[in-house]
Amino acid sequence: MKYSHIIFDVDGTLIDTEKALLRSLQDTVFELKGERPDLADLKFSFGIPGDVTLKQLGIGEIERANQFWYDRFNEYYDSVVLFPGIGALIRELHSKGYRLGIVTSRTRMEFSEDFPRFGLSEYFGTVVCAGDSPESKPQPGPMLKYMETAGIAAGEALYVGDTVYDWQCASGAGVDFGLALWGHNSARHIRSTYFFGDPYQVGYTLSVNRPEQLPWMKWAMELQFIAQAGVTYSDNAFDLERFERIREMSAEIMHHETGKPLDYIKDVFCSETGFQTPKLDTRAAIFQDGKILLVKESDGRWALPGGWVDVNESIRNNTVKEVKEEAGLDVAAVKLIALQDRNLHNTPQYAFGITKAFVLCELVGGSFVKNHETIESAYFSLDEIPPLALEKTSEAQIKLCFDAYHAENWTTVFD
Fold first, then answer.
1. Does 213 have pLDDT greater than 70?
2. How far apart are alpha carbons 325 and 40 in whole angstroms?
3. Considering the domain boundaries, does residue 274 fall inside one?
């Protein structure tokens, strides 16, 4: 695994405190200055210590103001909840062996008195609060303090937060950052390593065992792409000759490394015309009684029903068509689960790009009929998955479909 430590911000990332924080701050400003600013004008306070917020608002008597703000915050506390999916994410990451930590702008007292009620404290080891380091967010001090305390290097950690201050704190310390879009309205000007639409995507991104692309295959693919583009757009006869030679070289690399006949390589690898783009494959996720449908191919391995998208078909229509052909079923394609770069998720790697679309479908009717592509179909639970045709369907992709099926509000996952 790339990271050993996953570090979280608290407010706006783990727990939804926006309403309570803004209303209590609004009340504090009114009490101490006689002004009632709009809630939108107070959002700058997210991710920075309370003392800094109050000073920027021109409020003196910081200790008294903080106490009033804290008391008012507690009056709104019934509105503070974990973001949906956070509990499951934390338990999943912990079960996979990640060390979990926190870097927050809360004081130690605020964190200790409040956070335990959410039932997640036991999962977090190192916790850095405001005052634990000389600097505060957005300076890198809190993150450097975390690394010092945990005894890790910057490359071992990922920090997940919801504000530009979180990103600046992480990047200043050389730590990768994941923006929690569920707690942040815009990614503008934040050059995050990852952009997570919901907590599920954090767990999925970190749990996928992405195969490393072989260097020779990467070189061959890039040479083929350059050559094909050159052949397509060049008018100069000498340039065309050079580009054709580059294409031959890419095929020779593939032939040398795979041992497959050169004529075969040229046929499947160097036969396209026009600008080279990935091929498109659709896979259907169909559930019945909590189990997912797989089809058995003639070699005895199983896969989600699907295949190449025909040139005159949409993703939706092609999914329906492939299910009918391979499983004999009539389905309605209802939701896009994911778009994946096939070479990041399936083995063996192919020497051309493929985008895989996974589509959640609802069963309408029909029954299986043996055909030239599949010899059987059956429904399986997640703990009884049969031997798979891994070049088409992986266990992680099946789990992804289960997660989408059980989710109340699913956000499409895409590479």
1. no
2. 54
3. no
DSSP string for residues in 233-272? H---HHHHHHHHHHHHHHHHHHHHHH---HHHHHHHHS--
Cα dihedral sign, 203-353-315-402: negative
Kindly report, residue by residue over 40-58, the tens digit of the pLDDT.
Answer: 888 887 767 788 888 889 8
Q: Write the CATH number for 114.
A: 3.40.50.1000
Selected residue with higher pLDDT from 156 and 206 = 156
Q: What's the pLDDT score for residue 210?
A: 60
Look up residue 105 and give its DSSP letter: E
Cα separation of 143 and 141, whole Å? 6
Amino acid at 324: K
Residue bearing the bigger pLDDT, 318 or 276: 318
Same domain, 372 and 235: no
The total of structural domains in the chain comes to 4
Provide the total of helices (H) and of strands (E) in the chain, helices listed first.
13, 16
Residue with tokens 């080279």: 276
